Amino acid sequence: MAFEDTMNSLRDFDINNLDFDNVGSWPAPIKLFIWVALLSAVVVGGYYYHVEDLQLQLAEVEAKEITLKKDFEKKAFQAANLDAYRQQMVEMEESFGALISQLPSDTEVPGLLEDITNKGLLNGLNIASIDLQKEQAREFYVELPIAINASGSYHDLGAFISGMAGLPRIVTLHDFNISAKGGNANNLQMKIIAKTYRYKDGDS
What we know:
Elements: H1 2-12, H2 28-80, H3 82-102, H4 109-122, E1 126-132, E2 136-137, E3 141-152, H5 154-165, E4 171-180, E5 188-199
Antiparallel strand pairs: 1-3, 2-3, 3-5, 4-5
């Protein structure tokens, strides 16, 4: 019966006669509808003005979390392999020291030139000239080019090149130029640049 009374009162109620000064006299369905509408407005407004901002912040924090996890995994891997890295560093320092010991100092360059001359003579070459070129400074070392002009047979030149690789100091060979002198294949003219290196100290 209460439901029928409510429906009858709602049917007899004229929405144009709503008395905003006496809201309590409105029919229950109208009041319920108003309350639902207000609640929906509050929820929607709260979402757009509060929850949406929180979701954006959450997305930023989640993205930062992924970055931090990757950084943590990287550092954890480095920490787990710290002893291996230290051992590698010791080995690298030893290798670097061995290489540095092969780089001649200024006072050893005359001895290097003598070694090159002896290699040529031992292999039957005729050394026309050995000229020091201008030093070229690099990041960690100084490069000293040496222009060599020699002549001999094909096998003599090959033996000389092979012997240069066996020198106790680091010497690299560049810019080969071999020609047959007078058309004689047994008398070849060779021009070559040999480069040696020295460690670049603070004064270089």
